[in-house]
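Need the bound structure for magnesium ion, inputs here:
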Amino acid sequence: MRIEEITIRHLKMPMKAPFTTSFGTVAEKELLLLEVKDASGTIGWGETVAFVAPWYTEETLKTTWHMLEDFLMPALLHKDIAHPDEVSALFATIRRNGMAKASIEGAVWDIYAQQTKQSLAHALGGSKDLIDVGISVGIQSSTDKLLELIKVYEEKGYKRVKVKIKPGYDVEVIRAIRAAFPNLPLMADANSAYTLNDIEVLQQLDAFNLLMIEQPLAADDIIDHAKLQKQLKTPICLDESITSLEDARKAIELGSCGVINIKIGRVGGITEAKKIHDYCQQHAIPVWCGGMLEAGIGRAHNIALTALSNFVLPGDTAGSSHYWYEDIVTPEIVVEDGHIRVPQSIGIGYQPNLEIIDKLTISKKVYKG
Ligand code: OSB
Ligand code: MG
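Answer from helper R.:
Posting the output first, comments after.
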């Protein structure tokens, strides 16, 4: 492969419902779509997952664009590469900025899968035909509204429900959900809203048979999480704290978590995500694939990754129609009985819908290096 041309489109997509976490709300998703062309004419697609504001991690849509334009594309364009694993080596001197790196690396994986005539899932070593899908429910204006939504999701067959919590919107909310849905596979995600001073509140959550508590403490912490895990029965799942295989190794060694949420963007690409998956498998740590309110391209990459065997817990990659009036791929991603069928056709298995993409594009730039 030799990448000769990259087109970046800035898209703005209206969401069916705003999504609120402990630190931010997304009502309209903005993203960069990368159309990456190789010397032989094969086109691969990538998507950035950073939000407009840095409330989840430090990256933003603008920082990803800056990194792509000034560092990542110059490092990649016109270089001969035999395998997508080599992309991270080209980026080795550029620190962090995982979401920017992942967007371009995902497109290179797409090209590689097409040129080796296999599905992306197969190219990654995945063998599942069906993946289990959960749903992540944002913070709601009332508990009644939340219970109503959960009822709909349970009836739709989602394999587990994750609710967002924050100080003051936690124990009573979870208690109400458990009273209404005693057997629902349920978990809570704090997006790093607590500190060790809140240990008593977090311990109260042990009473509700949660599958896990996701990222209760600081986004860059593994020490306090290890202290907390010793005093909690419920497994801690790390999200924000894990940005690399090295982070995963240290967190597992310290006992900071029992589960890891893998997000391709947060860890800098599919190659690093696979390494974390393999390491967790060797250390009996189950993983699942997190979500970043992706449009169809990012969603397709998540589905392919989730086909790997240690993705044993339901992920957050729900169907297109949960988020979007119209997704940017054809067919859209469909969930049936809490499952998504992993495409077996060559490449990502979904076609970018250029008509819809054009409609949502607010600016566009072509780079040839
Ligand atoms: O912490 O997993 C998270 C959405 C935006 C930012 C962070 C998170 C989330 C979600 C939703 O939980 C996942 C999704 O539905 O894509
Ligand atoms: Mg999370």
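Comments: The mean pLDDT is 97. The first helix runs from residue 61 to 76.
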